[in-house]
């Protein structure tokens, strides 16, 4: 397997390389280890070098990344990627960056876009807050898609919700004039906040 993949997917190593530390920040997700199916691991190995992005503390240059100056839409938490692939195919006049932390969803989206040969989408496996702070320039994004973020319904978990005032302010700073945030939830209390 390609050694550079291990930086983004330490779970693919035989030895667990995740860091353990006491200075952990509250995340809007919890990673659980689950085995990948062979076809999912193969999709990552085959398509990650073409579509995958590694986290770096430097701003992305979209024209270099995509080879064009089309507007960029960022999808945060794309799940299994079916909607993401469909939208990217239908709206080829836009470039898409998908942010997801769960391997099975990444593998499924990689497989879909790899088979379709879509060139207007890139994928990153990293915390969205850190990516937005360190890799996405202010006033550079045409839109954000956030479909059904985890509502964390228990009172003690509300602090984990992705959509909170500081995050909304961060998104707003990244938008171009006339840009949009498209957020969908089926949890009324979350929508009301």
* Fraction in helix: 25-40%
The second-level CATH architecture is 3-Layer(aba) Sandwich
> Remind me, CATH topology?
Rossmann fold
Question: Can you tell me the overall shape?
Answer: globular
Considering the protein shown, what is the CATH homologous superfamily? Vaccinia Virus protein VP39
The order of strands across the largest sheet is 1-4-3-2-5-6
Low-confidence stretches: 13-22, 28-33
Which band does the percent of strand residues land in? 15-25%
Distance between the termini: 45 Å
Radius of gyration: 17 Å
Question: How many H/I helices?
Answer: 8
Query: Tell me, what is the CATH class?
Result: Alpha Beta
Reported for the largest beta sheet, the result is: 6 strands, parallel
Total domain modules: 1
Average of the residue pLDDT scores: 80
Oligomeric state, counting identical vs distinct chains:
single chain
Structural class: alpha/beta
The SSE order reads HHEHEHEHEHEHEH
- Count every beta strand, where a strand is a DSSP E run of 2 or more residues: 6
Explain the overall architecture.
By secondary structure, this protein is α/β, with parallel strands linked by helices. It has a single domain (5-21, 28-192), classed as Rossmann fold (3-Layer(aba) Sandwich), CATH 3.40.50. Helix content is 36%, strand content 17%. The protein has eight helices and six strands; from the N terminus they run H-H-E-H-E-H-E-H-E-H-E-H-E-H. It has helices spanning 5-8, 38-51, 62-66, 82-90, 103-116, 128-135, 165-174, 188-192, and strands at residues 52-53, 72-76, 95-99, 121-124, 141-147, 175-184. A six-stranded parallel β-sheet has the order 1-4-3-2-5-6. Helix 4 (82-90) runs parallel beside helix 5 (103-116). The N and C termini lie far apart (45 Å).
């Amino acid at each position: 397997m390609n050694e550079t993949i291990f930086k983004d997917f330490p779970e693919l190593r035989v030895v667990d390389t995740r860091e353990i530390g006491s200075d952990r920040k509250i995340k809007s997700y919890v990673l659980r280890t689950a085995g990948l199916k062979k076809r999912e691991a193969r999709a990552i190995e085959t398509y990650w070098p073409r579509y995958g992005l590694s986290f770096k503390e430097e701003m992305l240059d979209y024209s270099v990344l995509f080879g064009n100056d089309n507007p960029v839409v960022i999808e945060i938490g794309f799940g299994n990627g079916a909607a993401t692939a469909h939208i990217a195919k239908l709206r080829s006049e836009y470039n898409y960056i998908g942010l997801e932390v769960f391997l099975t969803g990444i593998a499924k989206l990689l497989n879909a876009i790899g088979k379709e040969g879509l060139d207007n989408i890139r994928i990153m496996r990293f915390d969205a807050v850190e990516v937005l702070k360190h890799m996405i320039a202010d006033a550079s994004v045409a839109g954000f898609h956030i479909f059904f973020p985890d509502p964390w319904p228990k009172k003690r978990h509300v602090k984990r919700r992705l959509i909170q005032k500081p995050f909304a302010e961060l998104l707003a700073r990244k938008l171009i004039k006339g840009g949009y945030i498209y957020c969908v939830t089926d949890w009324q209390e979350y929508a009301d906040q």
